């Protein structure tokens, strides 16, 4: 006969309280169990759904207000001290469209570098290689 591990059962002096006493009256009516496990999707299904969602959409992915703040902050570095520039909403929109197109192309090239090295995970070194291969200004000049 094979040996098997057994653990001694711990007997307490006080019996444990039943979980029904601690439940709210609404949860007993619906019949939902407090120990019911939440449904988890298989790995990758949510990612594929997000890919389809973002491929179908044409709207901008970077929030407008934080992007406008960054543009104004960068502008202050190139403007003489004390001078203030004002940005038109259409100009900010055009810069944001160009920036997102540039980033999208960069990520596409970086992912091609990832696939070339027989991986599926995009790493920072792939982005550095894509920028190096594109040259100083990338695709935009």
Q: Could you characterize what this model shows?
A:
The protein has 141 residues and is an all-alpha fold. The chain has a domain at 51-134: Orthogonal Bundle (Histone, subunit A). It is 51% helix and 0% strand. It has five helices and no strands. The chain has helices at 25-30, 45-56, 64-78, 89-116, 124-134. α4 (89-116) crosses α5 (124-134). 2% of the residues are buried. The model has no long low-confidence stretch (mean pLDDT 85). Keywords: Chromosome, DNA-binding, Nucleosome core, Nucleus. One of its GO terms (cellular component) is nucleosome. GO terms for molecular function: DNA binding; protein heterodimerization activity; structural constituent of chromatin. Belongs to the histone H3 family. Its main location: nucleus.
Concise description?
The chain is an all-alpha fold and 141 residues long.
As for the CATH topology of the domain at 51-134, it is Histone, subunit A
- Unreliable stretches (pLDDT < 50, length at least 5) are none
CATH superfamily of the domain at 51-134: Histone, subunit A
Counting DSSP E segments of at least 2 residues, the number of strands comes to: 0
* Mean pLDDT across every amino acid position: 85
Structural class of the helix and strand makeup? mainly alpha
Q: What is the helix content?
A: 40-55%
CATH architecture of the domain at 51-134: Orthogonal Bundle
According to CATH, what is the class of the domain at 51-134? Answer: Mainly Alpha
In what range is the share of β-strand residues? Answer: under 5%
How would the global form be characterised?
Answer: elongated
Q: What is the string of SSEs from the N terminus onward?
A: HHHHH
Helices, by number, come to 5
Largest sheet: none
Gap from first CA to last CA: 80 Å
Protein name: Centromere A
InterPro entries: H2A/H2B/H3 (IPR007125), Histone-fold (IPR009072), Histone_H3/CENP-A (IPR000164)
Subcellular location: Chromosome; Nucleus
Domain Core Histone H2A/H2B/H3: 43-133
């Amino acid at each position: 006969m094979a040996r098997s591990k057994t653990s001694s059962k711990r007997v307490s002096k006080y019996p444990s309280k039943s979980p029904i006493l601690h439940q709210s009256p609404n949860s007993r009516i619906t019949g939902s169990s407090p120990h019911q496990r939440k449904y988890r999707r298989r790995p990758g299904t949510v990612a594929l759904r997000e890919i389809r969602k973002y491929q179908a959409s044409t709207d901008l992915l970077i929030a407008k207000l934080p992007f406008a703040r960054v543009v104004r902050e960068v502008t202050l570095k190139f403007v003489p001290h004390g001078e203030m520039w004002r940005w038109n909403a259409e100009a900010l929109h055009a810069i944001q469209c160009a920036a997102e197109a540039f980033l999208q192309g960069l990520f596409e090239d970086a992912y091609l570098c990832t696939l070339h090295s027989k991986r599926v995970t995009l790493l920072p070194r792939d982005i550095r290689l894509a920028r190096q291969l594109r040259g100083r200004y990338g695709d935009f000049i």
